[in-house]
Amino acid sequence: QSTNRPTPGGGRPKPAPKPKPQVPQCKALYAYDAQDTDELSFNADDIIDIIKE
To answer: Annotated region Disordered: where (predicted)?
Structure first.
């Protein structure tokens, strides 16, 4: 026996999440320790967002 109950969430599809703004990225092949204050330290396999070239 079936019943006509509304589906959870009202049967409406959820809106798709807004995509993040795409920025170029790179993956570090090796670790690097900054030698100066204007440099960036990172570990191997870190994903780095490139915001300015």
So the answer is: 1-23
Domain assignment present for residue 50? The answer is yes
Buried b (16+ CB within 10 A) or exposed e, 9-44: eeeeeeeeeeeeeeeeeeeeeeeeeeeeeeeeeeee
pLDDT tens column, 13-38: 788 777 777 889 999 999 999 999 99
Domain interval for residue 29:
22-53
Partners of residue 32 on adjacent β-strands: 42
Q: State if pTM tops 0.90.
A: no
Residue at token pair 């092949």: 29
